[in-house]
Amino acid sequence: MAASGALQFALQKLDSILVQEQQLLRGFNTRIKDIRDELESLKIFLRGADAGDDKDDIKAWMRQLRDIAYDMEDLLEEYTFHFGQPHRHRLLGFLTTSIQSLRHLFTRRKMSIAIQDIKTQLRNISERRSTYKFNSSFNATKKRVHDRHLAALFMEEAELVGIRKPKEEIVGRLVKGGGSSSLTVVSVVGMGGLGKTTLVRKVYDDEQVKGWFNSHAWITVTPSFTVEELLKSIIIQFYEERHEKLPARIQTMECIQLIDTLRQFLQDKRYIAVLDDLWHITPWECLKYALPNSDCGSRIVVTTRNKDIGLSCIESCGSLYELQPLPQPEAWFLFCKKAFRSVSAGVCPSELQDVAEDIVKVCGGLPLAIVTIAGLLSKKAHVLEWRKLRDNLHAELANNPKLEIIKQILLLSYNDLPHFLKSCILYFSIFPKEHAVTRITLIRLWIAEGFIESERGETMERIAGDYLNDLIDRSMVQVAERYDYGRVRSCRVHDLIHEVIVLKSEEENFSTLMITRDTKRHGKIRRSSTHAAGEHLLQSDLSHLRALFMFRENVLPIPSVVNLLSRLRLLRILDLTGAPIESFPLEFGKLPHLRYLSFRNTKISKLSKSLGQLKNLETLDLKETYVTELPKTILNLQNLRHLLAYHYYTSHRPPYYLADGVKLPHGIGKFRELQKLTYLEINQDSRIVRELGNLTQLKRLGLVKLRRVDGASLCKSIEKMEKLLSLSVTSVGMDEYLNLRSLTSPPPLLQRLYLRGPLQALPNWISSLKHLVRMRLRWSRLKEDSFGVLEELPSLVELTLIHAYDGANLRCQKGGFQKLKILDLERLNNLNHVVVDGSMPNLQKMYIRSCVQLQEVPQGIQQLVLLKEIHLFDMPEEFVQRLEGEDYAQVSHVPIRRSYDSEKGVYKEL
């Protein structure tokens, strides 16, 4: 964790203890307050230096400070472990406290010595800080990459690959094709190393652009410049280009005078100004007033790594151009052009083909990386040298001066992060390269770690989501997958950014990767992810471990795992996803600080009563396990925020129940912090249904085996869940109606609705769901003309009907389903005719599955001009042949048309 991040967490913990545990501190209070004040002072000091000066003495100073913060955090965790909370009963509390006073006398003395030692270390560190002059490494790094920046400006176009199309598009936006005579802004956005500066320079130097504008200026907006210096640079460029005399006293002018001077000069001119490498919005907020809109067709081009800044610049008068990595063929061509220029005229020798392809893949379409690594390898002829670089890229980035430019360019983005985002991005170093992490998992882990700084009126989940969006906007994190309705499902980091943050993680002692079976680490390990480590893991110092992830099966035998975990009393996160275990023999009381526990995809079927001792637990993930009932002691987990416990059926034709749920004891209304509960089995338990009304913080609720008689009670409970975003309800059987008609005031923010079971008709309250984007109906038995309620929903993007419609004709009214993008029809056994004429104008994907009576493609499908994909699954051969024959003209505008045969396991393009 960045140094100030480590201090921030220690300070939060100190504040909590000082407020809540004053009676138990007994002598520690004053000394802990002293430490707290000194840490606060150092944290403020570090805010300006946390980007990290690369001088060895300063890095050592910061490492010492970070270690002290970690040690203080350890001490506080030891305190809560040994002394805990006072007992509720006075007599029992008195006796217990007396016994503990004797039992923990040695512990208190040990803590006292440790606190005094920390105070001494802090005093020494504070005395030394005045000897260091911190300079932002952002600026220092900028100077180191200055030569590379110049190379990007003046690179010959013959040297470039993949630039023609984006150049033509941006030129078109700037000159006559741009259309508007008003001042407009084009923001070019992308991660470091993509070639934004190179691309825009070629646009700027293009003959069309040079001729179209009569005034030109290029400004590199490095953080080392003040706004006044930037304004002077622009004025000098504009004046000198027209051979005009500079205004008198320009060097002594203040900001307002400079802005006025520039505005007057540009008032009647068609100009182009490039603001290259904009890192922060502040310079733009001043410069935009100096660049007037004179209705002459002037243009401003901004390059930035931060999408949010790019959007802020264009406001209502511009466009965003997101520069993408090179496609694989162009990346391969560029690599070969650089690596084999002198030996084989740009053609890869056969013996290097495989290793070269691997290296190009790691570069991930990043031109800077491709050119730099290819240039290095062009001087290495032997295949063993190539393999060495491929297999040890992490070490090469750390130590090879010829690859320093890649590391520094990517570190610019890291160094620019605020302190609270640095620990968030470093968390990706825990996961294997190319590993996509689900958005919600990442958010829960950040919360469990204490990375999220809470704000009044906002949940930590919301703030963590904003953190992730910020990292995505800054081009540090890539979206790996989105749901069809737009929300981010999973994300990852570029392979080279992963290499860089692993280096940074090692430097910060943030996490340790146990990659091989002979891995052994020295020093205090804070977080560990084991990819293939064996018994050597047990020989490392793990007493300070905060998080443990095991990514592969058979990493350690179960007795060794139990032995290991019994020593990790400070552990906050334990992720055993996919581990080959059927039980968890360790008493949970030995892990009192656990906040996140995952047994996902294991064969565990039961958890012990000791689960109730995990009073700090926030996330319990039992997804795809065989746990069907949780012990009564789970009611002790009052901090629980996310409870996932279900097992999906994965057969080709699952039974009525898509998922088995879990039974909970009476009293679940005590879970006042619970935000996600899936799936709760409520068969034969009306009391549980009523208690759900106390869970007012719920955002996602999944219920199975609802009886018809409990429908009214469930509706009353749901009406109290004003924050609910997702609701899934399954009836107790396919002959048991879902009785949800009495819900008069549905959750106003509901976005996703999944109903499984017969409905006499769609409930009227559905029409009030203004934010509903996704709806899935199964076994609904709806009759013809029953979709009027859905057609008017203003935000509905995805609609899935599975055994949900009994009618022969499905007719959508003209103007209906205005926002729908995905339509999925499955096993509608009576359906023989569909009409979409005049509806669904934004439909992009259509799925038709096992609708055996359907005779022809939907009527009006040719009007769906945005339709990009048609997928047919197990449809009658006659239907498929008709689509290829007489109905072909109606679907010829759809780029992707495929038919799948699940029994044969094949598909064909239509």
Question: How would you describe what is shown here?
Answer:
The protein is an alpha/beta fold and 910 residues long. Among the domains are: 3-135, no CATH class; 141-322, P-loop containing nucleotide triphosphate hydrolases (Rossmann fold, 3-Layer(aba) Sandwich); 328-408; 417-508, Arc Repressor Mutant, subunit A, CATH 1.10.10.10; 782-910. 38% of the residues lie in helices and 15% in strands. It contains 32 helices and 30 strands. The strands form 5 sheets. It has an 18-stranded mixed beta sheet, covered by helices on one side. A 5-stranded parallel beta sheet has the order 2-3-4-1-5, with helices on both faces. Strand 19 (700-706), helix 29 (711-718) and strand 20 form a beta-alpha-beta unit. The chain is globular and about 85 Å long. The chain starts with a helix and ends with a strand. Mean pLDDT is 84; it is low at 86-96 and 135-147. Belongs to the disease resistance NB-LRR family. Residues 544-872 form the Disease resistance R13L4/SHOC-2-like LRR domain. It comes from Zingiber officinale (Ginger). It holds the Pfam family WHD_DRP. GO terms for molecular function: ADP binding.
